Predict the 3D structure of the following.
Amino acid sequence: MRRTLLVITFVLVAAAAFADIFDRPAKVNLVVDNAEAFSRRHAEALRTKLDSFERATTVQIQIYTTKDLYGYDIVDFAQRLGEGWGVGKEGANNGIVIVYMPKTLTENGEVTIQTGYGIEPLIPDAVCKQIVESEMIPRFKQGLIYKGIDQAVDVCISLTQGEFTAEKYIADKAKIDRIAKIIAQCIILFLIIIPSCLFVIYFIVALCLGLFKGYTISSNGSSGGSSSRSFHISSHRSYGGGHFGGGGARGSW
Amino acid sequence: MKTKGCLIAVVAVVLIGIFSVVVWYIKTGNKIVRLDEGVAESWAQVENVYQRRADLIPNLVATVKGYAEHEKTALTDVVEARAKASSVNVNPEKLDAQSLQQFEQAQGNLSSALSRLLVVVERYPDLKANQNFSELQAQLEGTENRIAVERRKFNEVAREYNTYIRQFPASIVANSRGFEKKAYFEAQAGSEKAPEVKF
């Protein structure tokens, strides 16, 4: 009995821990170095490169290093991470996730590149495999972790560069924005109409019941000027809600 | 005069009541339709990734044939299993347990025929060094991952739909409009992990 309880507690705790990893963080950090694979300088260099690439193209490349995959297969882990965090923009699905697990004395090192749906045609699985096998693993074997990842990132950047542009994305976004505005106005209109209808009905009923004899309708001056403003493009950076379908490749050394 | 006023009030209240029930019925029905569409879309995605795998097979078989001519049984097994798997059609409107199981079985047979072929291939170093083959291998591996992902996504969407249509009061709408529960993919032992394709 006690053992069952213990097991249940363990499972619950473990489940809570899993849920946390794949929950979308509030702030964007494209280089998450939990395994401390990079020096601070290198991590910063990588982050700067990825940030400026994102600004130029909206493509998000997420680097994640970890010593523990919490029982997941590395590909599964990377896919869930990408999907859960929403790496890449919603609609464009232009995110890439690179997960790296260092080699230990007992276990092989592992690495995977997972491509969002929108990246799949630009970097097919065979190309991912090629990047892993020829850019990453040979360098990882020599202990050049930063070099390997950096090279792989460069290849990903050169392959996706032409396809996505920030202007195109913003234009798309502006269109959605306009629609959102119209919907918001409809909702507000609706919110005004229903209460006024209810008021009128109440008024008629009250009038009929003769409770408010001599009641005169006062104009209820509701103005609808507060609808705009809230729907402009936010310059706040966030993970956008890109989706991942399991495309990509893995490798170990 | 007073009774007449009361009558009008009662009629108004009843009308409003009927109106809101009708609105609720339509809205709930529409939500079910939307969820149902989501399931159908997700199913299309599942079929899509299985089709992707099926599309890789002729190329794979041709490449293997060039190097391993006498592995006839393994090769014909794959070809036959592929033909069988392609012939199983599931009506996306229905997706009941039986049709899903049939689909699963046919695709499972293809999976095992494929893995048998890949074990056999282990004996041919020349083939393994072939560029075309290693590309196919990477694509096949990616496709197996995609299958695992889309199956999981399908289950999530189907679960959302099932939960909604079976909850009161939405269940009334679902029953009256003939919406039925969808089946899930069964999680096979170890299916959390995408099957690893090793060569």
In short: The longest helix of chain A spans residues 166-209. Chain A has a mean pLDDT of 79. Strands of chain A lie at 31-33, 60-65, 95-101, 110-116, 244-252.
